[in-house]
């Protein structure tokens, strides 16, 4: 079942704790891409200096000020696109970075998008979507997808529950220097697709 608006309009940390195991889906002209979310990070511009919204609304971050349930995509270091799930009520400025997914559907197309070939070794497979830039490249998500309504049919999230043996772990976020003490990285412990093992 596709997640409804009410799922996204809750507090960012509540959504983050419930988002693991949900399935990210992209429908590209009938070609489906999907993967289970196994790692994410929460950002809250009201108090969090690492959030893009900390300094207020700009042209770049305005999507993050929508009500929850929209996709926010930005270019990181001029190289990699990163996708985020906007949360909370309108004007809040909170979002969740999807750091890693476990590929499910459209894997051959993901491999082609990332590596330009059709098959990978088992070891290479674990690097297919093990980072925020890798997720976007594999799924073909670009800046043009920023602002997409996640309750629509282009890019959306499907409900799914964690497996019985899966445990949620929490840590500090990765690769930031501001507000680095906040324990706002959530991940499925020991999943092979994590960006950092």
What does this structure look like?
The structure is a single chain. α3 packs across α5 (132-139). Strands 1, 2, 3, 4, 5, 6, 7 and 8 form an eight-stranded antiparallel sheet that branches. It is built from five helices and eight strands; from the N terminus they run ααβββββαααβββ. With 197 residues, the chain is an alpha+beta fold. The mean pLDDT is 95. The protein has helices spanning 5-8, 12-19, 107-115, 122-125, 132-139; strands at 23-28, 31-44, 71-76, 80-87, 94-105, 155-158, 168-171, 185-188.
- What's the rounded overall pLDDT mean? 95
Biggest beta sheet attributes:
8 strands, antiparallel
Return Rg in Å: 16 Å
Write down the domain tally: 1
SSE topology string: HHEEEEEHHHEEE
Characteristics:
197 residues; 3-methyladenine DNA Glycosylase, Chain A; 5 helices; 17% helix
What would you say about this model in short?
This protein has 197 residues and is of the alpha+beta class. The chain has one domain (5-188): Methylpurine-DNA glycosylase (MPG) (3-methyladenine DNA Glycosylase, Chain A, Roll).
